[in-house]
Design a protein that fits this description.
Strand order of the largest sheet: 2-3-1-4
Number of domains: 1
Structural class: alpha+beta
Shape: globular
Number of helices: 3
Order of helices and strands: HEHEEHE
CATH architecture: 2-Layer Sandwich
Largest sheet: 4 strands, antiparallel
Length: 127
Amino acid sequence: MKSAFALAALLGAVLTGCASQTGTLAHDPATHSHESQAASAVPDRMDERLAIGRNEARVDGLSCPLCAESLNAVVKRVDGVRSVWLDLDRGVVLMDIENPAPTRGQVAKAIDDAGFTFISFLESAGG
């Protein structure tokens, strides 16, 4: 019984934290602000296709698990993205890419359109 109360308290804290930032339980890019750690200039090479296999992108604003799930869903909808995992501690979106691979710009735009701030791709992750 104790663990059920602990789980309910944790879930309540997560939902309350997200709701206090957004005013709703869903991620709303119009009302949820994420301060960027990087310049807003578009990085070079955005027309290049991502490597087939594992790729990682640094993203600012991956602190709320409920909001991060909305990012997961948006990135999964990009053609060529087979699967997505989020590493909230590192602020990283991990993606498995298949042919035809999306461009860096397509993934960066999806991240930004979801209300988060794309920072960069981690070069060593491609495969």
